[in-house]
Design brief:
globular; 12-stranded antiparallel beta barrel; 1 helix; about 250 residues; mainly beta
Length: about 250
């Protein structure tokens, strides 16, 4: 399947399911818009200092949501960057599926396409990229103040195809293991470990760790701060040296 046909298939499914969702009774918050500013040091081709817009739509039936990510990496790619000199990066589209139960455990999944839209192309991977992942979650019980603790594990595979034959291929197996604490008011704290296996480097491994905190300003607005750093494996796909991130999300 070509990148164009795969993208068209995701958009068509999202549009159909989204129309169905629009007919649901009022009062729901089916849309998410998020603005993120991310300063990244010593990152790989798809991990650099940038501003990013994410648009997400809740769907119905077997689909959980459709997502579009519009990255605008700084022309200056170092940690400080230059937020007032952005470029277009590699656009991503994701379609997520509702949980299914396997062996008594619920699993969610998704498929994602990234396109080599970066201009200049040095700010992206130069390749089309297909990614698919699956996640499961374990509740860990209640904590003080009505908080709820949980842990979840995600595994995904990303491969590149087409695009610039002279650019480096992507062939990554990625894992995410997080420990999360949710407050009844909507606040949260999360610690995440992200180890990767880079098959284009003969199975070399690398990992980053991130600490994230979210404050629910209101029912609709959330502010989130994140700090991350390299654990091991500099230069492995999907890793970076250090990162500071702030984002604001609106549900409506």
């Amino acid at each position: 399947m070509t990148a164009r046909r795969a993208a068209a298939a995701i958009v068509a499914v999202a549009a159909h399911a989204g129309t169905a969702g629009a007919q649901a009774p009022g009062g729901t918050r089916d849309w998410l818009v998020e603005l993120k500013r991310q300063n990244t040091g010593r990152g790989t081709a798809d991990e650099s200092t940038r501003t990013q817009v994410k648009i997400e739509r809740v769907l119905e039936g077997p689909f959980a949501f459709a997502r579009l990510e519009l990255p605008f990496p700084d022309a200056d790619t170092d940690f400080e960057g230059d937020a007032f000199d952005p470029r277009l990066g590699d656009v991503k589209a994701r379609l997520a599926f509702r949980a299914v139960t396997v062996g008594g455990r619920a699993f969610t999944s998704y498929v994602e396409l990234a396109f080599p839209t970066a201009d200049p192309d040095s700010l992206g991977t130069g390749k089309n990229q297909w990614q698919a992942g699956v996640r499961t979650r374990w509740p860990l019980g209640a904590g003080p103040g009505g908080t709820q603790a949980s842990t979840s594990l995600q595994a995904s595979q990303a491969v590149s195809f087409g695009g610039d034959a002279a650019r480096k291929d992507t062939h990554l197996t990625k894992f995410e293991w997080d420990w999360r604490l949710d407050h009844p008011a909507g606040h949260f704290a999360k610690l995440v470990a992200k180890p990767n296996i880079d098959w284009t480097q003969d199975g070399k491994t690398g990992a980053v760790a991130e600490l994230e905190g979210g404050w629910a300003v209101s029912r609709d607005w959330t502010l989130i701060l994140l700090g991350g750093g390299l654990l091991w494996g500099e230069g492995v796909g999907g890793t970076y040296g250090r990162r500071v991130e702030i984002k604001s999300s609106l549900r409506f």
